Amino acid sequence: MSRPRKYERMRARRGFQVRYEAKIVIAIVVVALAIFSAVIAFGRWYRSKTALPSYTPDVACLSKVILPDEQPEIIVDYTGFTVSFNPSYHIPNYVVWELTGREADGELPRNSKFYKDDDVYGCAELDDYRRSGFDRGHMAPAGDMKWSAEAMAESHSLVNICPQDHSVNSGRWSTLEKMCRQWAQRDSALLIICGPVISDEMPRTIGRSQVKVPERFFKVVMAPFAETPRAIGFIVPNSYTDEGLEAMSCTVDDIEQITGYDFFSCLPDSIESRMEGNADFRQWTQRGKHRKQ
């Protein structure tokens, strides 16, 4: 075979190989673009399904909690929070407050002087807690009230207090309070509702007033001004546990089922069902700004 023909065939084979490889590269690029487009389309679809319709948060309305008809309550408005007080059990039904990012960054020193509020029927006595074996556990924490001396002082009213196991008061409950302050700074503001689970049987009491000792506590946290408004719940046992807060997290629907309370009833049904039916603890613990721009 002459050299020119041999070289021509070699060039032809090389040309075929180059064209073949080029087709493979083009096919890979086409497939990659198709996958990328599918991911983008899925993301848009998912956001459309999970995003909440636009609404204007009304904190006063969102703060209202509907209790079972038979449950006694006295509403007590303090400077930084509101208490639904149960005079029969001498503890709150729930406590609600808005915590802004600026308030969460307050710098006032802590005031630890507890007191009986004589203006509230059924308020516990200071002696009820002495040598009881339980801490005086804040529902609205003093750490959230460092923006106002008056709010700080009033947070120590026994109307805002429940008998709390020391391991809880200084452990998971305290950790959750600190996390809420971080979330408030990130998300502009939070609405927080917490209290004892009154629906539980509470056979234990303390003091001459027979203050009921809760078996569990609940906390509902809502970020109404976040870019994607959301809410999460927690059920915290009033005893030592190895469980972390993620294991204690749940949906607001779960809290409603446990307590018999109705939260955020003023929201449109489409928003309420989505917000109360989802609880992503890891989303809450992500760093970065989630507030609306």
What's the quick description here?
The chain is of the alpha+beta class. The chain is built from eleven helices and eleven strands.
Structural features:
11 strands, Extracellular Endonuclease, Chain A, 2 domains, 7-stranded antiparallel β-sheet, alpha+beta, elongated, two-stranded antiparallel sheet
What report would you give on this structure?
The protein contains eleven helices and eleven strands. The chain has 293 residues and is of the alpha+beta class. It has two domains: 1-50; 59-284, Extracellular Endonuclease, Chain A (3-Layer(aba) Sandwich), CATH 3.40.570.10. The strands form three sheets. The chain has a seven-stranded antiparallel beta sheet, sandwiched between helices. A two-stranded antiparallel sheet has the order 4-5.
Low-confidence stretches: 45-50
CATH class of the largest domain: Alpha Beta
Q: What is the overall silhouette? A: elongated
Distance between the termini: 77 Å
Give the second-level CATH assignment, the architecture of the largest domain.
Answer: 3-Layer(aba) Sandwich
Radius of gyration: 28 Å
* Overall domain count: 2
Largest sheet: 7 strands, antiparallel
**Count of alpha and pi helical runs:** 11
Question: What's the arrangement of strands in the largest beta sheet?
Answer: 1-2-3-6-9-10-11
**What share of the residues lie within helices?**
25-40%
Q: Total strand count, please?
A: 11
DSSP strand content: 15-25%
Mean pLDDT: 88
